[in-house]
Amino acid sequence: MTAPEPLMRMRLRVEQDIFTVRQLGREVARAVGMESQDQTRMATALSEVGRVLLAQGPHADVTFTAELYGVPSLQVTMAHSAGGGAARLAEQLQQVGRLVDMMEVDDGGPGTTVRMVRRLPLGAPVLTPTRMDEIRARLARHVPGSPLDELAVQNQQLIAALDEVRAQRDDLARLNAELEETNRGVMALYHQLSDELEETNRGVVALYAELDEKSVQLRAASEAKSRFLANVSHELRAPVTAIIGLGRLLVDSSSDELTEDQARQVELIRTSATDLLTLVNGLLDLAKAEAGRFEPNWTEVDLKAMFGQLRGTLRPLATRPEVEFVVEEPAVPALRSDEVLLAQVLRNLLTNALKFTEFGSVRLGVRRSGAEVEFVVADTGTGIPPELHERIFEEFYQVPGSKPISGKGTGLGLPYARRLAGILGGGLRVESVPGEGSRFTLQLPAEPS
Ligand code: ADP
């Protein structure tokens, strides 16, 4: 693409030409669509560069061009006949450079060249070759005024600039006043908020103190309950055991023969006392677990051996041919835990499963799950309604209407099992669907800390 034809050329020779270039600069800037402030900027830049250039040599050529095809802009080149001074000149013109978008000082060609570019505002009329011709014709008609005229124009510009500065100062004062007012408002709000915050804090602190006190009381009450249960059940155990023993003596063949009625009544006393002993033992165990009396004896538990024992001891309970009793081969060979407590939990879960399963199967398995080992006791028994899944872990709670197929319950087995699971560093959970069966999972850490 060829460079566009210049809009205007002129040569600076004498000092008066500085006024001319200034006037011309403003005219060209106006003609290509720059706003008044930009016109003044351009004019000032040209007269300043012209002044500096003339001080260094006899003459300088000024060329005005406009960019039509790229970013619309006005370009002015001022070529000075003497070369070699670009670096110094650039330093001298540093301030002036701020008046335009780009200023280059360069030693190429016959002398030093100063090139300035200023972009046209977005709203400026589009520059077309035809419009460029019109601008050229208009500029050619332009007759530069005298230095006095230029002075008058400059004065007017100065007055306009002063007015603007005054208006800006007034604006600033108004803004400051507004800002001060806003600040006062913000400060008031801040004080109010910090007062409220302080009050809320005081409330929260008081609440925490109360909460602390309540939890101390709660702990004391729970300890008192455990102590009471432990003492009562301990005290009950001896007389109940004695009643069972005496009952056995009464029905013994070496004792006096009893009437049929008497024998039935003694048997009733014996079974009731046995139930009572089971209850007392359960309560004692639970109280001990709650009071933290169990200190686990951590050893490497051989699960294969433990599963074998469970299979053997529980087989006599699984007498119904309709229920398949399966203790799987353990998929995890060993685990660091307390053998007695772990066996107690599993026995408890298996006994429950056998008690509540009429058909199908009761199954014990173990598997590794990440950093945990999971023991699963699954049955196809009566199942437990979902809303009672947590309640069955409460002391003495039994699902209303659920009747064990064999034996009786106290409602203490699951709370005890969950306590033990906790003591072993794990947990006990249930999934169950009424009519389909239940699945109890004892989760223990593979490596207890
Ligand atoms: P219980 O001595 O009555 O078995 P638990 O605390 O062991 O006491 O269980 C509480 C209740 O949870 C049981 O009475 C029973 O209603 C229900 N339950 C426990 N295990 C099962 C199971 N495997 N299938 C169905 N119901 C169960």
Automatic annotation (TrEMBL):
SMART domains (alphabetical): HATPase_c, HisKA
Localisation: Cell membrane
CDD domains assigned to the protein according to its UniProt record, in alphabetical order: HisKA
GO molecular function: kinase activity
Enzymatic class: transferase
Superkingdom in the source lineage: Bacteria
UniProt feature coiled coil, ranges: 148-185
Catalysed reactions, semicolon-separated: ATP + protein L-histidine = ADP + protein N-phospho-L-histidine
Domain Histidine kinase stretches: 231-448
InterPro entries: HATPase_C_sf, HATPase_dom, His_kinase_dom, HisK_dim/P_dom, HisK_dim/P_sf, Sensor_HK_Regulatory, Sig_transdc_His_kin-like_C
Principal localisation: membrane
Name used for this protein in its record: histidine kinase
